[in-house]
Structures are given as structure tokens and as C-alpha cells.
Amino acid sequence: MSSSEHHWEVGTDIGGTFTDIIAIRRGSAEARIAKVPSRPQAPVQAMLEAIEAVGLRKSEVKRFVHGTTRVTNAIVEGRLPKVALVATEGFADVLEIARYRRRDLYRLDIPPKSPPLVPPERCFGLAERLDHEGRVLKALEESEIERLVAWLKGTGVQSVAVALLQSNPSRSYARPSSKAPFTDCDRSC
């Protein structure tokens, strides 16, 4: 048996009440499942407790997949933190336009759409662009990151959502710059 067959693949889901975990040993049919109380103020701690609950050490986990219903719950309950949206320049208004929620774009007799989850004044257009294969069309300059960081600090946000067009084909592109100090807010990419 190779050393990789001793490792586990783990999936967790942080819910409002419980954090669920499933661990599967690679190369065998062994699976372990557990449920531990969620910790809204310390979600990582709940994940570590879940790993312990299935009798594993962190060093035994080769692959870790994480999901959460925390954001969905916050939206439904109307308790979102002050959040900013960073999008590719020219697309910062995507939430305000909200075509994905409108079945009939041109009917004037239907009620107005609900306000966006992030107001327009907290949406930032980042001057950068990739094509559909992840090739750089407009390079993200360090000065643009500095402009973004200054803007974020001025907004007083607690969380930042990043939605850059075509960033999926280029994994390294979606990673924040080491010079971008987001220390005062959460990052969700």
C-alpha cells in the first residue's frame, strides 16, 4: 500500500447549528461521518473539531473540501456584514442590473426588483481583464491594487467578495497580491 493510500479525503459543511464532516480513506471503502456544533465566531475551530470527531489528525488529510450555508443563512435572515464587491472594470454594476433574477426584462407591470445585496457605492471596478482561456488582456498593475486597498480601507467593510471575469482558467490570477493588506476584513473568492 502506497503512502498516499493512508491519507483521507475530507468534506465539511458549516451550517448555522452544526458542522458536518465526511472522511473517506483513499483506496478503500472506509468512511467516517460526524456532526459537531458550529461556532459562528470561530468556524475554523468547528472544522478542526469535526476532523478530531472522526478520529483524524490534520496530517492525515490529503484533500479537504469545504462548503457552507453561512452566507445563505445571513442573506435569508437579513444580517449580512458590511460587504464590498470587487469586479472586473465595467462589471461592478452586475448586482444592480440583476438580469439573472428578472424573468421579464421589458414588462413594466411587474413589481420593481429588490435592492442589490451590495449597494453601488460599495462596488469597485478593478482595471484588469482576462480572456476566456485565462490569457491576460489587461494586466493588473500594482498601482491598481494600491488604489483598491485605499478604497477598501475608506469603506469600512467587513467582508470582500471578488468576482473577476474569467479568473477560473488562471488559478494564480485569482490569488490576492501579497502587498494587498486585507487584514481587517474576510476574503471570499
Summarize model confidence as the mean pLDDT: 81
Helix and strand succession?
Answer: EEEHEHEHEEEHEE
Helix- and strand-based class? alpha/beta
Instruction: State which percent range the strand residues make up.
Output: 25-35%
Helix content: 10-25%
Q: What does the radius of gyration come to?
A: 20 Å
Gap between N and C termini, in Å? 37 Å
Strand order of the largest sheet: 3-2-1-4
Number of strands: 10
Low-confidence stretches: 177-189
Biggest pleated-sheet summary: 4 strands, mixed
Topology diagram in text:
Blueprint: E1 8-14, E2 18-25, E3 31-37, H1 43-53, E4 61-68, H2 70-77, E5 83-88, H3 94-97, E6 123-126, E7 129-130, E8 136-138, H4 142-155, E9 159-163, E10 186-188
Parallel strand pairs: 1-4, 5-6, 5-9, 9-10
Antiparallel strand pairs: 1-2, 2-3, 7-8
Descriptive account of the structure:
The chain is of the alpha/beta class. The chain is 20% helix and 28% strand. It has helices at 43-53, 70-77, 94-97, 142-155, and strands spanning 8-14, 18-25, 31-37, 61-68, 83-88, 123-126, 129-130, 136-138, 159-163, 186-188. The strands form three sheets. Strands 3-2-1-4 form a four-stranded mixed beta sheet. The protein has a four-stranded parallel beta sheet with strand order 6-5-9-10, covered by helices on one side. The chain is extended and about 55 Å long. It starts with 7 loop residues before the first strand and ends with a strand.
Structural descriptors:
single chain; 189 residues; Nucleotidyltransferase, domain 5; extended; disordered C terminus
